[in-house]
């Protein structure tokens, strides 16, 4: 299998790296696209905050399906997860054929952070790697990060500058 290039997208949010990281981990139900689901009637998405933790969704009937595993945990600057997506956007149940989601939180100014998601090592998806790459490729930031930026803006309140009279 030939190498498939990574897909990298980023967005800049008005938040510290810690705030941006916390919202990413604690509020995925708010930013994870409704169209990206493995369970029916999703009621929760959880990213367990530790190395080896799972990230998974739960349906109203109690069904849980893991999207992957936390393979790097370095708050508030970096998080790496396996991404268990198979043919027809259905789940696969092991990390051996999963690619990686590398999420980097880089402070670029006072309370300003660039959040970058890299879909890395897509070749691990085997015969569907090129298809997945083509589906992910597109303008940055993409639906997921655009929604995430809106959620950050809702939850991080910054005082506005006032001028004196």
List keywords for this structure.
165 residues; 22% helix; disordered C terminus; 34% strand; alpha+beta; 4 helices; 7 strands; seven-stranded antiparallel β-sheet; Alpha-D-Glucose-1,6-Bisphosphate, Chain A, domain 4
User: What is CATH's topology name?
Assistant: Alpha-D-Glucose-1,6-Bisphosphate, Chain A, domain 4
Discrete helix count: 4
Broad CATH class: Alpha Beta
Topology, number of strands: 7
Average pLDDT figure = 91
CATH-defined superfamily: START domain
Report the sheet-strand fraction: 25-35%
Gyration radius, in Å: 17 Å
| Structural class determined from secondary elements | alpha+beta
Strand order of the largest sheet: 1-7-6-5-4-3-2
Quote the distance from N terminus to C terminus: 67 Å
